[in-house]
Design a protein that fits this description.
- The chain contains 4 helices and 17 strands.
- The strands form 3 sheets. An 8-stranded antiparallel barrel has the order 2-3-15-12-13-14-17-16. Strands 5-6-7-11-10-8 form a 6-stranded antiparallel beta barrel.
- The longest helix has 13 residues.
- The N and C termini lie far apart (42 Å).
Length: 318
């Protein structure tokens, strides 16, 4: 049978109608034999984070509309070649007066300048598995995710090959960006527990498809993986379109057999065999989710709640 990459388009993952559900069987669980299979689910419903805004001690401070708690220089991980995504570098923060990084936010952006787009794309192609970061000017994180994203922009944004706070090489001095779409946004609610099993956000378009680990409570790990979706049994264009539409909308991937610990995370080389069932087809469509690389995995900065001094960075596995 022929294999073809699944194309995808970015979109919001806030929809509540779970019209499509993936039933996945993974053939590469950590510590398991090749014959062992791992249950896995993908759908449009976000995990239950187990907390409401009324339970969060931070919300009384931010309810008055004061942007100060959410305004800062928000460093971003940068992913993609032709589709470019900014992934806010989050920190669990418990100070009522100042908690700007208490957000996990992923946005789809476009360069306003073709020269900036070319400079980034050419450098990224030459360094495919390297972390890139960006540093926009100070802005209010809440304002970015609360307004219509099609009207938002990030002016004068610096781009770096490497981490901008850890000796990264500056690539672009001041790029103007249009925010095309907010893929995912969540403010951490401190009254919730850590998710017991691993959950990821699946998003992307074209060859730029990613999994980002969903943070819930410390100690946790912030991870983004570059992945490939490959169709191995897509009988009709209609079924192909249904798969594409699902990835276009974004989806939540849960690994219920994996405890939510850094040592149990997905890693490069893992391949998950995915059985995609639709309401109109009795037999599932088979796809593969292949983990190509792990451009970012950080655990030190999200290992404990921050109230004054920030946590020390520590890449996963160190």
């Amino acid at each position: 049978m022929n294999e073809e990459p699944i194309m995808s388009l970015s979109n919001t993952v806030k929809r509540k109608s779970a019209t499509l559900v993936f039933m996945l069987l993974a053939a590469s669980a950590i510590g398991a034999s090749a014959e062992a299979q791992e249950a896995c689910l993908i759908g449009t419903e976000a995990p239950d984070f187990g907390a409401l805004a009324g339970d969060d001690p931070l919300h009384p401070a931010s309810a008055a509309g004061d942007p100060a708690p959410h305004s800062a220089l928000h460093g971003q991980g940068v992913y993609g070649v032709d589709a470019v995504y900014l992934n806010h570098l989050p920190i669990f923060m418990g100070n009522q007066a100042f908690h700007p990084h208490n957000f996990q936010v992923i946005v789809d952006v476009a360069f306003d300048s073709p020269d900036d787009a070319t400079a980034y794309r050419e450098d990224r192609l030459a360094n495919p598995d390297t972390l890139y970061t960006a540093a926009p000017p100070v802005f209010d994180q809440m304002a970015l995710v609360a307004d219509d994203p099609s009207l938002q922009s990030l002016p004068q944004t610096q781009f770096f090959r490497g981490h901008f706070e850890q000796a990264g090489r500056q690539l672009i001095v001041a790029a103007n960006l249009t925010v095309r779409n907010v893929i995912y946004d969540r403010e951490f609610l401190l009254g919730g527990d850590k998710l017991p099993t691993q959950s990821y956000l699946l998003y992307g378009r074209g060859d730029d498809v990613f999994l980002t680990h969903l943070l819930s409570a410390p100690a946790d790990f912030d991870q983004t993986l570059a992945v490939t979706l490959v169709a191995t049994d897509v009988p009709t264009d209609t079924i192909r379109d249904m798969v594409n539409d699902f990835v276009a909308a974004g989806g939540f991937l849960e690994l219920p057999d994996r405890g939510n610990e850094e040592v149990m995370r997905l890693r490069p080389g893992d391949t998950i065999i995915c059985h995609f069932t639709t309401p109109t087809r009795a037999q599932p469509v088979m796809v593969e989710l292949r983990v190509r690389s792990e451009p970012y995995c950080e655990s030190g900065e999200v290992e404990a709640l921050v109230t004054e001094a920030f946590n020390r960075p520590r890449p996963c596995g160190e």
